[in-house]
Request: fold
Amino acid sequence: MRAYRSFLAAGFLIAVAVSPALITAQEPVQNFELSLLPPIQIRGEDSAIRILRLGLYNKNVSVKGLDAGIVNRNTGGESKGLQWGLVGYVEGDFLSWQNNLLANITRQEFNGFQGPSIYNVLDQGGPCRSDSSTGRGTSRASNSGS
Reply:
């Protein structure tokens, strides 16, 4: 349990350290998001979030940092960092680690690691195949799933 907490803390610190350099100037950028479900959330759905997003059902343009919730949905743009929850749905590009228990879905380009889940999909590369030997990748169709 201690190792797991340390691992999550390290992922969060890395996401916080790199997030300010990864923000695009075209979207309204907010540092923090807390939500129950849209529209009951602090920031608007058209906002890009950097550093931290927490909630039951999260919906914003993109997240750069830690994205944690039951359902995490990014509606466009480029998301980078750690996404953690039950279902992760990214309509834009994703870079880093997508680790959701039930489903990891990315509709555009994906570079990084998809943790083991019941359902992993990368639209540009088609449904993902399990690759338990590496568990990581740098192409659009690389992941680890079960």
User: Anything to note?
Assistant: The first strand starts at residue 29 and ends at 37. The chain has one domain: 2-127. The two ends are 23 Å apart (CA to CA).
